[in-house]
Amino acid sequence: MSFEKFFNTAVSSWMSQEGPDSDIVLSSRIRLARNIVDFRFPTVFSSEEAQQIVSLFEQTFAHRSYHSVGRFELLKMSELQPIEKRVLVEKHLISPHLAEDSPFGACLLSENEEVSIMINEEDHIRIQCLFPGLQLTEALEAANELDDWIEEHVNYAFDEKLGYLTSCPTNVGTGMRASVMMHLPALVLTQQINRIIPAINQLGLVVRGTYGEGSEALGNIFQISNQITLGKSEEDIVEDLQSIVKQLIAQERMAREALVKTLNIKLEDRVFRSYGILANCRMIESKEAAQCLSDVRLGIDLGYIKNISRNILNELMILTQPGFLQQYAGGALRPEERDVRRAALIRERLKMEERKNMEGDE
């Protein structure tokens, strides 16, 4: 089986780019919740209203190009297979709620997958902009410009005192959720993360797993986001979050330095054992794969491993998820079959990277 086409087409273009502090911060995201005047909120609207909203966005924005992100395509959840929806969740392009609980849901997706606009999720629309590394300010600027573009064609539900009106009271105000995805293996290994998370929560921020609320922090990847949307400007929310993220970056780097000084050979051994598992295993579960990939990524960042790109690990964190594995298998797989395919995919991808580096050295 050839894997080249799979890797060339399956990963969003922004995932393969480097950003500021991308050794620790995988991505920055701004999400804006908006509702449209003259329609009831999704919690109480009728199926006819839901379909009208989808039609409105399909007629107004589908197949239109916007700046550098390219053309928008509309994907209706009712027309997608369960595996296809799961792939979109794994790529962080839609929420699990839209995939599982929104029969009249849809998504406008930009050509480069940097922008997705979820339709009929918890609110009428949720605008999402994704950037590599720590680029919250840039993501906010892009989201605001996109928001203005959409507002040229629709009227938002807005109150002069409260701000943007949303289905959930916790989103009223700016309607904005700013978040960063961070790789924090050293803070986990030193167990500092156990005291850091409660401290972050007390500051009005929330720490979640890889896929948001209720999900596990697979591969030592954590999502940090704001909880407060009312009484603060978008800029203040981003500034507060960015300040905490920079402190976390500094703490993670100090923890890495401490591990190298005190447990260097043990840490190096852990990294290469994990690499050995990935390069040679014939079956591997997603949780073990995520942990091994986290170890290898840490080894790359610390200079233990020199022939593997950090971005390869970013790709594999997503490409080895159940949805992707089943999509490219052409149908549903039993857990054991997924474990076999996951191992084969990782082995082949590492071999491809080694061959590329060998050719570059010649």
UniProtKB/TrEMBL annotation:
Its EC number is 2.7.14.1. ATP binds at residues 27-31, 92, 126, 177-181, 208-213. PROSITE patterns: PHOSPHAGEN_KINASE (PS00112), PHOSPHAGEN_KINASE_C (PS51510). It comes from the Bacteria. GO terms for molecular function: ATP binding; creatine kinase activity; protein arginine kinase activity. A motif (RDXXRA motif of the pArg binding pocket involved in allosteric regulation) lies at residues 338-343. Keywords: Allosteric enzyme, ATP-binding, Kinase, Nucleotide-binding, Transferase. GO terms for biological process: phosphocreatine biosynthetic process. It is an enzyme of class 2 (transferase). Residues 24-255 form the Phosphagen kinase C-terminal domain. GO terms for cellular component: extracellular space. It catalyses: L-arginyl-[protein] + ATP = N(omega)-phospho-L-arginyl-[protein] + ADP + H(+). Appears to be allosterically activated by the binding of pArg-containing polypeptides to the pArg-binding pocket localized in the C-terminal domain of McsB. Belongs to the ATP:guanido phosphotransferase family. Catalyzes the specific phosphorylation of arginine residues in proteins. This is Protein-arginine kinase. It comes from Parageobacillus caldoxylosilyticus NBRC 107762.
